[in-house]
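sry for the spam today, last one i promise. struct tokens for design, 52 residues
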């Protein structure tokens, strides 16, 4: 069965910049960094199964 791709998550340029900053952080809790990376992937239209 083919993987269905969810519609890309809509984020503004300001939100994307903040998520990128968070994803690259070495001081934030690991959970926040992983969540930011997942949100960036979702915003790029990556399938949920690939993100997981």
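last one done:
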């Amino acid at each position: 069965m083919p993987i269905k791709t969810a519609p890309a998550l809509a984020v503004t340029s300001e939100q994307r910049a903040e998520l990128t900053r968070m994803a690259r952080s070495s001081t934030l809790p690991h959970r926040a960094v992983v969540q930011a990376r997942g949100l960036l992937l979702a915003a790029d239209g990556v399938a949920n199964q690939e993100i997981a």
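The chain has one domain: 13-51. ok im logging off now
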